[in-house]
Amino acid sequence: MDTVKGQQWLIGIFSTLLIVILIIVAGMEMEKSHATKPEIEIDKMTARCITCHEEKGIAVKQIDAWKESKHAVMGIGCYECHEAKKGDFDAFTCTGSDILIGRHPTPKDCAKCHEQQVKEFANSKHAHQFWLLKNGDRAVFEFPMATRHGCEECHQVGNIWPDGSVGECDVCHAKHSFSKAVARQPETCGECHVGPDHPQIEEYIESKHGNIFKAKGKHWDLNYSTKDHQKIPLEVPVCTTCHMDGNETQPMTHNVSARLATESQAPWSFRTVWDEEHLGNWKKKRERMEEICASCHAPDFYKMYFLTADLVNLQYNEIRRQFVYWTKKLTKNGTIHRLQRDGKFFSSPVLNGWDELPEHNMYYGWHHEGRRFRMGAEMMAADYTQWHGIWEVQEDLTELIKWAAEHGDAEAKKIAKSNDPTKFITFALYDVPGTAWGIAAKTNTTPFVYNNLPDYWDRVYKNVEAAFQHGLLSEDQWQLWLKRYKNKDYYLGLKFANTPQVDSTWNFYKKRNDIDLQKMKEQVIDLVLPGKSFFEGR
Amino acid sequence: MNFKDWFKERFPIDYDKFVEINERIFIKEPIPVHMKKWWYCMGATPLILFALQGLTGIFLAFYFVPSPEMAFESVRHITQDVRFGFWIRGLHRWGANLMILSLLLHITRVFFTRAYQRPREFNWIIGVVLFGLSLTFSFTGYSLTYNQLSYWAATVGTNLIKSVPLIGHELLYLLRGGEEVTANTLTRFYMLHVWFLPLFLVFFLILHIIVLRLHGVSEPEGFPKGKYFPFYPHHFYKIIIATLFLLALMSSLTIILPPGLGTPADPTVTPFHIKPEWYFYPTYRFLQLVPLKVGIYVTGAFLIAFTFWPFIEPLLSKKNEVRRKISWGVGALTLIITLGLTIWESLV
What we know:
A: mainly alpha; 26 helices; 52% helix; globular; B: mainly alpha; 70% helix
C-alpha cells in the first residue's frame, strides 16, 4: 500500500466509505425531520368529518387541537371515538350527512384503548358522586340554576352516564389534544380544587413545591411518560407527581385514592377504607405516597411531616366533636330547628342547615375552615393551616357558644362568662414535640400551656396513645412520636433555650423590639392632634 | 488573447517564478523516506482536524447564541431542528476529541523519536504552546454548550486559576467577568473560542510549519539517512486519505455516539459528580489526590519540565545513549502515570 497506485486505491475506498456514511447521515436527517413533524395520515372517514366541519366552520379549532394530539399521529381519527350504534343514548345523524355518531364519547369509549386507566379511575374517589348521597339536596339553598354551572360542572369528573360508565376523561385531558402536559399542569387540578372549601391549588402555590414550580417550571416539558419506573423528571413535584405519576418504585396510576391515607375532606377525619380490596389499607396507601416522597426527601423529614399532618386531622375531630355537641343539644332542646316539609327533613344538625347561626358555624367549621385547617397541614400551606384554618374554626366555635349563651344555655353561659384562658379549649388536645423543620430554641418557651398546665404532656401522651391503640396512627408513627416525647427537651428546643449563645441572639432582638415599641409610642401613640373630634359629644 | 494572458495583464506577476516556488516549496518538498511508513507521517492530522473544526465551527456559529438564556436552547435547536445540524455538531464535537487524541499521539511520536533535539528545540516549544491552545479551545468550547456538566466544569476549571500566585483572583475575575460564572463568562469564552484562540493558533501553526520546513523533517534513528521523495503525489495522497478517513470516522461516531444535550445549566444546583472532559482526567485526579496548592505547583513544575525538555535533556548527560535512555524512561513513566490516572478517574 506504499505505492502511489495503492494510495489511489485507498483514496477510492475511503471516498466510497465516506459517501456511504454521508448517505446514512442524510437518511437520519430525513427521518429526524419526519419525526419532528409527524406525518398525520387521515383516513377516509375522518377526512369526511374534517372537510365538512371546515366547510361549515363548526368546531374547527377542535380539529386543530386533534392534529396536535398523539391520537392523530397514531391514526385515531374522529369516528374511532365518536362511533355510535342506533339506540345509543347520544346517537344522532350528523347534519347534512348519513353518519350516525355519538355526541358524548364516554369512558366506555376511552376504555376501548385505555382500559387500565379507565378502570383505575373508576376505582378512585374522583369517580364517586358522594355529594348526591347524604343530605345532598342543597337545592334548598343553592337552587338548580346556580348548580348547573357550579357543583355540576366540577362533579362532572364523576358523572354516571346512561351507558353505565363513570367519569369524564377530558376534564383533565382537555379535548381534542388530550395532552399529558395539560393534564399535568397544576392549574388543571386547580380548575376544581380551588376556593374556600378545598383550596389545594392555592395551597400548592403557597408551598415550597409550588413556589419553585412557578419560578422555574415555565420551560419544563410536562409531556412525559412515567409508565416504566423512570425517575421523576422534574425538580419539584406538580400535583400528579405525588398523586398519580410513577417513579423508580411506584407505578403510574389513574386512581388518585391510591396514595391517600386520610379522608380529610369528610366531616370527620378518618382513615380511609376506600377500595381496600384493590388498594390495601390506609397504611399501604401512605407507604405508596412515602415512596414518592422518598424520590427527593429523607424519611426523617417526610415521616415527621405526615405525623404532624395526621395529628392535625385528629385534632380537628376533637373540635368537630364540640360543634356537633352544641348543634345536637340546641336542636334537641328546641333552640334551633331542622328544616322540614311534609314530615321530611331537609337539613341535619350534624351536617348542614342554613338559617340559624349555630348550624352555619358548624357547617363552616367543617366544610370550609375545617378542611383548610387539615388540607393546609397536609400540603405545606402554613397560612391555610393557620389563619384561613384553625383561626376561623376557633372563631366559628366561639361564636356558636356565644350564641348559645345569649339564647339561654347555662353551660354555654358558663364558658362565655369565664375569664380563664382555657375557655377556648373545650376539647382534648394532641401535640408532638417540635416540627419537621428543625430545632427551635425559643419558640416553645411561651408560658400558656407549658407553665400553666403542668400535666399538659401527660394528657397529650394519653390522647396520642389512645389514637394509636384505636388504629388511627401506625406502629411506626407511635414509635416516632415516642422518640420525640422521650427527648422532649431536645425536640422542643428547651434544652437550648437558655444557653449563652441562644440568650445573646435572643437579647439582641429583644433590644431591637424595645426600640421599636419606644419609637411606636413616640411617633404615633403619644400624638394628640389639635383639630379634635368633629362629633360634639366627645 | 487567452485567459492566461488576460489574467497576467491584470495581475503582472512572474508566473514562471510562481510555478517554480510552488514546485520547490510544495510539490517537490523533500520528504524523508521513513515517512512512507504510516506510523511516522501523521503529523498533519491535527492540521486537517483544525481545518475541519474551523469549517464546522463557522456553521455552528450561524445558530449558536452565547447567552445563558439561549446557549443551551440554541445547541438543542442545532441538534434537533436545524437541517444536518446534528451532523455538523457531531463532527465538531468528535473533531475536538480526535484533535486532542491526535496531538497526544503526535507528541508521543515526536518525544520517543526525540525529534525535539538540537536544533529543533524551539519547534517543540511552539508545539507545546499549540497543544495548550488546543486544550483551551476544547475547554472553552465544552463550556459553551451550557448544560449542567459543562457549566460546572467551567466553574471548577476556572476556579483553579485562583491558585496562581499574587494575581490569581484578578485573573479569575478577568476570565469570568465577575465573581461567578455568568453571562459575562459565556461571552468571554465565546470570543476566546471563535476569535482569539483561532488567531493565536493559526499564528503558532504557521510558525510551527515554517520552522519545520526550515530544518526539514527530522530523521529518526534506524532509517537510511539522506533519502527523500517528493511531497506530491505520495505524501499529498496520504493527507487526502487521512482527511477522508477522519471525515468517515467522525461521521460514523456521530451516528453511533451522537453528542447529547444534557440538562440545562442550573447555577443553583451543584451536581453530585463534576467531571471535566477525558483529557483533563489525569490532572483532575491528581489534584484530588494531593492538597490543592501542592497539586497546582507540581503540575506547574511538570509543565515547565515538559516544555523545556529539549534544553533539559542535554544537561543530564553528554552521552547520547544515556540521554536516550533517560528520555525514554521519563516518557514511559509519564505515559504510565497519565494513563493510570485517566483510567482511575474514569472508574470513579
